[in-house]
Amino acid sequence: MRDAAYKLDPALWVEEIVGETPSAWQKQFLRAPRGVQILALTARQIGKTTTAAWAIAHHMVHHNNSLSVVVCPSQRQSGEAVRRVNDTLTAARLDLDVDNTYGLELKNRSRVLALPGSDDSIRGLSVDGWIIADEAARLSTDLIAAVRPMRARFALPRGEQDGSGASTMMRGLRRARDAGRA
Predict the structure, then answer these.
(1) Is 82 in contact with 104 (CB distance < 8 Å)?
(2) Span 107-136, mean pLDDT?
(3) What is the pTM of this model?
(4) Exposure on the CB side of residue 109, measured as CA atoms within 13 A
(5) pLDDT recorded at residue 136
(6) Which of 22, 48, 72, 91 has its Cβ near the most Cβ atoms within 10 Å?
(7) Does residue 139 register a pLDDT over 50?
(8) pLDDT grade, residue 168 (50/70/90)?
(9) What is the SS3 string spanning the chain?
């Protein structure tokens, strides 16, 4: 029964299994509906990469054979983000089947890859987990164009889109923003 709760609530999993306490914005990020696009505009060193690592680790644990990717302006930066995923999986006491600088794989065959900051060699992946674009303002438009089709075959679940394609989360954020102005 508790395993089902952990699968449904990544923030609970982070608190009870990883042993960290997410802040309110981190919980909102972790609980976002699958497939939504999230833009985290926060201060530096506030925990964006750590939160993304928690989300990827949670997905890897609860979705067999899944693939998540991290793309940054340089592969070294992407590798550092994957290292945070490794730290999270270690804190959760999980064994890795593959553990290297640019990729991790669990025994359930779920993976995360650190992609280079160039669009030349990243095409052809189908991502059913997270696509994390860290330092996105510094990514080239060609790189972003190469990453977008990775998600194309995975549609949002029914009811999570409105006619404009905006996700439920974005509508909720707009409502909250508008309510603050009233």
Answers:
(1) yes
(2) 88
(3) 0.80
(4) 3
(5) 80
(6) 72
(7) yes
(8) very low
(9) CHHHHHHHCHHHHHHHHHCCCCCHHHHHHHCCCCCCCCCCCCCCCCCHHHHHHHHHHHHHHHCCCCEEEEECCCHHHHHHHHHHHHHHHHHCCCCEEEEECCEEEECCCCEEEEECCCHHHCCCCCCCCCEEECCHHHCCHHHHHHHHHHHCCCCCCCCCECCCCCEHHHHHHHHHHHHHHC
